[in-house]
Design a protein that fits this description.
Order of helices and strands: HH
Number of domains: 1
Oligomer: single chain
Radius of gyration: 18 Å
Distance between the termini: 38 Å
Largest sheet: none
Number of strands: 0
Structural class: mainly alpha
């Protein structure tokens, strides 16, 4: 019984984390599109080191998700009191 509850808890944590990553991605998407537009259309230059840019973008999304989670846990409760 406890094993099933743990699996359910891990599944819930996974989906909450996935939702936070999706939210961070949707928050960053306009910035990513503007930068790509200027790089490709205005400057007419290819994206240099595309693999590094994608990896860096993934790290930024993860970092933003963790930052927002920290705000929700640490600072937002202060404003509620």
């Amino acid at each position: 019984m406890i094993r099933g509850e743990m699996a359910n808890m891990h599944t819930q944590i996974f989906f909450v984390a996935l939702k936070k990553l999706k939210n961070a991605f949707t928050d960053l998407l306009p910035i990513i599109l503007v930068i790509a537009f200027f790089q490709l259309v205005v400057l007419r230059q290819p994206l240099p080191q595309l693999g590094e840019i994608i990896f860096g973008t993934i790290l930024v999304i993860i970092g933003l998700s963790l930052f927002v989670q920290g705000l929700e846990m640490g600072l937002f409760p202060i404003g509620e009191n």
